[in-house]
Specification:
Blueprint (H helix, E strand, L loop, with lengths): L1 H16 L4 E5 L3 E8 L2 E10 L3 H8 L14 E9 L2 E8 L8 E10 L8 E7 L12 E2 L5 E9 L2 E10 L4 H8 L5 H13 L1
Parallel strand pairs: 6-8
Antiparallel strand pairs: 1-2, 2-3, 3-10, 4-5, 5-6, 6-7, 7-9, 9-10
């Protein structure tokens, strides 16, 4: 478990530091970037939020609140509290056209900044849990690496960056989006800002 937690945080930190991000869209408080490497597509959503960084961190690290702003989360329940900084959740998401509903078993690891200017981190990855085997009513999907980095701008504002390394399991939700025919990434980002503020 210690190794999984460490590799969860390390994978997100590594993804955030990768060179070669291309900006694809700029709105008032939201910028969307993509990064392609072989068959793996990653995206980053950067949001300017008018709340202190520690407040954004406490709201975003509690995944039971996620349904309040992310319509892709249908249900989210805690399966196991591993430690103060680690929880395992079971998430279900609404079906997209032509696909059955999906579910995920995810480890969420949260970390305070380890240096004064460092970001708050909330890292997410799929794990297997014997107590939660795949069920026939859902298509079990995998999150390789996702999560948030929250950077302090001032005592009352911060930059929230959401990252996701996209696998085919998440693709139906994003395919329409990245071609520009749907605005679900933007809409979700704006809902997230509204929720935090």
């Amino acid at each position: 478990q210690a190794y999984l937690s460490y590799s969860n945080i390390a994978a997100l930190t590594h993804l955030a530091r990768k060179p070669g991000w291309d900006i694809t869209k700029t709105l008032d408080n939201v910028r969307i970037w993509t990064h392609e490497e072989g068959a793996v597509l990653s995206f980053k959503v950067e949001m300017q939020v008018k709340v202190p960084s520690h407040v954004a961190f406490s709201l975003l690290s509690d995944f039971s609140l996620r349904q309040r702003w992310d319509r892709h989360f249908l249900t989210c329940k805690v399966l196991q509290v591993v430690s103060e900084e680690e929880k395992i959740y079971h998430v279900t998401s609404a079906p997209t056209t032509g696909h059955q509903p999906r579910d995920f078993v995810i480890l969420v690891s949260q970390r305070q900044p380890c240096r004064p200017q460092g970001p708050y981190t909330v890292a997410v990855r799929s794990v297997t849990l014997r107590a939660m085997p795949p069920s026939p009513e859902f298509c079990r999907s995998e999150i390789l690496c996702a999560g948030f980095q929250i950077h302090r701008n001032s005592s009352s504002s911060c930059t929230v960056c959401y990252f996701n390394q996209v696998t085919s399991g998440v693709m139906p939700y994003l395919a329409a989006n990245l071609t520009g025919s749907s605005k679900s990434i933007e809409d979700t980002a704006l809902e997230c800002i509204k929720f935090l503020e």
